[in-house]
Amino acid sequence: EVQLVESGGGLVQAGGSLTLSCALSGFTFDEYAIGWFRQAPGKEREGIACVDSTDASTYYRDSVKGRFTISSDNAKNVVYLQMNSLKPEDTAVYYCAGTYISSGGVAYFSGSVFDDYEYNYWGQGTQVTVSS
Fold it and tell me: Please, what's the b/e burial string for 39-69 (b: 16 or more CB within 10 A of its CB; e: otherwise)?
């Protein structure tokens, strides 16, 4: 059974940093994509970052590009989201999500790496609150 468990959320002042972790278990093949999503109150869930395990390619939504970094530690089966220069508008519940992909990587997706329907497995979410 595939499981994803997020941790690392909390309260931080604007301009500060947080690192979220997504612990993976149950993936039986090495070809998968892990995405980070967030949902702010009253807003739709949005994908913000993705890592493709087939070639370690990373993808970022423009709103977080240059501030957030997604990375993976394959030995520990953990995917991280390093968040710097946080803004109040980054306040949201953050989710990691995963799905198997073919050897062709995220090109296998019918949509975008930021589309939540592309992912089959989801964590429970962790709250990030950025105070002004």
Answer: eeeeeeebbbbbbbbbeeeebbbeebeeebb
